[in-house]
Specification:
The complex is a heterodimer. By secondary structure, chain A is an all-alpha fold. Chain A contains 14 helices and no strands. The longest helix of chain B is centred in the N-terminal third of the chain and has 33 residues, at 58-90. Classes of the chains: A mainly alpha, B mainly alpha.
Chain lengths: 278, 289
């Protein structure tokens, strides 16, 4: 009885998870007639697959839009924001894990809370001032501008994950390095950093996911030059582009990150992720 | 130890974050006392007019109330389902690694783009869901033009998108649990249910709280699904504060008033989440593990 319930639950959940993705993939191969006359599901049986959706978004004679530049923009912005967040975030997290800071009544816990609370900040609160600030600094519609803004949302994740991660690393490791004549900075870079790969990978993956998928800041702070991939697709959506083209461009945009699911699973199975969330 | 070292670690990140955030925050506070809009730009001073207008803005308070139940409801469902599938993927099913990858995938997809796909699923005349319903002989539902179904649609999308996040954090937590308590429970002959209630669940409490807090924080910003799928409609039936403020300040360019709403939204979010965090901390302490 329990086994039947379990199998049913797993089947239903897996179908639910797969359904929108399968729908997106099949829709991207549908000709117009298979979309506008009501829902069709099974290729070859209910409709003849066609490449018109894909031809519209890939370079070629039938191309309607250029998604390659936005892809490159998304890569640059995501990589930049992830790198800055990881470097500054893990340094701060290490400091907060090993030293005691005090300023008036504020302690380490308050500083950590300050970092993490930045995550509460709804992007809509900052959209307009960021717009004016970047305009003033001539950073509007530039990679650097968007990277800096995204960093404010990603660094909190790094600090949150890495403080716990560093807390779990025994202090004896750095003390040993310092006995051998390293100063704390050398101890961090020579002994702690190499041990932190699992934690940094997990934090980095979260940064990549949230950075790549950001729509709000990319929508308000970039115009044409630094159009990111999601914004480019949203723009298509705004011009009443048919569903087969939208589906093709969505599938195109989510493929790079779906690969990350495999990376994360490998970490889980090797047991490296456990320490990173504890 | 010299004083410089601790500062070397903390200050670069702290200063960078403050530098990015401080101007926008101060500007937002200042602009709420001005009348900056389409026809009048610049920082004049009109006192608390925006604030008193906000108090009377029922559409705004309605959107906050909606966000309140929408975020609690979706996070509760995400936690229950996420925990269940994490337990299955932890041990006891075949092809565990396959299911782990499969169940992680929604988290990797871009919410704003999946919302376009979801809209094509919920679309009433040519959408997938009504197509399926009619094939099994059920009546089509007005998913996007009726307020009840539209809220269900948003809930379904949020659950699909973010349950994998819960799943990931909880599974990683389960995998890092020590083995001894489970052996002890097995020696005592505890049933599977009792082992879960007395051992697994209490040991997972700190991680559960962390995961729920992070999800609540992100759920307090629900925007992508609403913006792309329903635009807050039908009427204002699915409008969240982020969607309403987006419309007021970035589409109608009522910058001063939009900022007032945004600032209040931020204050309420910080207050609510801090209180929830404190309650959680108190709940988890006396049990002790």
């Amino acid at each position: 009885m329990y086994k039947v319930l379990k199998a049913t639950f797993i089947t239903i959940w897996s179908l639910f998870v797969l359904f929108p993705i399968m729908w997106a993939i099949t829709t991207s191969f549908k000709p117009e007639s298979a979309v506008v006359n009501g829902a069709t599901f099974i290729p070859f049986l209910e409709f003849q697959p066609s490449l018109i959706g894909w031809k519209a978004i890939l370079p070629g004679p039938d191309s309607l839009t250029n998604l390659l530049t936005p892809t490159l923009n998304s890569l640059i912005v995501t990589a930049g924001a992830t790198a800055i967040s990881l470097i500054f975030g893990s340094l701060a997290a290490y400091g907060l894990s090993r030293f005691t800071y005090g300023w008036k009544n504020y302690s380490n816990a308050d500083i950590i809370f300050f970092f993490v609370s930045q995550r509460i900040m709804p992007p809509v609160v900052l959209a307009i001032p960021f717009f004016l600030l970047l305009k003033e600094l001539r950073l509007l519609d530039t990679h650097l501008g968007l990277i800096l803004v995204l960093t404010s949302g990603l660094m909190p994740i790094v600090v949150w994950l890495m403080v716990d991660f560093f807390n779990a690393l025994p202090r004896e490791i750095d003390e040993m390095a310092m006995l051998e004549g390293c100063n704390p900075i050398q101890a961090f870079f020579r002994t702690i950093l190499p041990l932190s790969k699992p934690g940094l990978t997990v934090a980095g993956m979260f940064c990549v996911i949230f950075g790549w998928n950001d729509i709000f800041f990319a929508l308000t702070l970039t115009a044409t030059k630094v159009l990111t991939l999601p914004v480019a697709v949203i723009a298509l959506n705004g011009t009443v582009t048919p569903y087969w083209i939208l589906a093709a461009s969505t599938v195109f945009s989510i493929i790079p990150l779906v690969g990350l699911a495999f990376v994360i699973e490998r970490f889980l199975s090797r047991g490296n992720l456990g320490g990173a969330v504890r | 130890m010299k004083k410089g070292y601790p500062r070397f670690f903390l200050l670069p990140g702290l200063i960078l974050l403050i530098a990015i955030i401080i101007f926008p925050l101060l500007f937002t506070i200042r602009v709420t006392f001005s009348s900056w809009n389409v026809s009048q730009s610049g920082l004049n001073f009109i006192g608390g007019e925006n604030w008193s207008e906000m108090v009377r803005d029922t559409r705004y308070w309605g959107s906050l109330l909606r966000l309140f139940y929408l975020s609690f409801l979706t996070v509760a469902i995400q936690y229950a389902l996420g925990f269940a599938i994490a337990l299955f993927a932890w041990k006891g099913i075949a092809a565990r690694r396959f299911f782990r990858v499969l169940w992680l995938i929604p988290m990797m997809t871009t919410p704003s783009l999946m919302a376009i796909i979801w809209r094509s699923i919920f679309t009433e005349d040519i959408g997938a869901l009504n197509g399926l319903l009619s094939r099994v002989g059920l009546n089509p539902v007005n998913w996007l033009t009726e307020s009840g179904p539209a809220n269900i649609a948003i809930t379904i999308v949020e659950v699909w998108q973010w349950t994998p996040f819960m799943f990931l954090i909880l599974l990683a937590g389960l995998l890092s649990l020590p083995k001894e308590p489970f052996m002890a429970a097995a020696i005592d002959g505890a049933s599977a249910w009792k082992t879960f209630a007395r051992v697994t669940f209490p040991m997972m409490a700190p991680i559960s709280i962390g995961a729920i807090m992070i999800r609540l924080i992100d759920a307090s910003k629900i925007f992508d699904s609403v913006f792309t799928m329903t635009r807050g409609g039908p009427g204002n039936a699915t409008e969240t504060p982020a969607a309403y403020i987006f419309q007021r300040s970035l589409q109608d360019f009522q910058i001063a008033y939009g900022s007032t709403l945004a600032l209040m939204y931020l204050i309420l979010a910080i207050l609510t989440l801090t209180i929830i965090g404190k309650v959680f901390a108190r709940l988890s302490k006396p049990r002790g593990i």
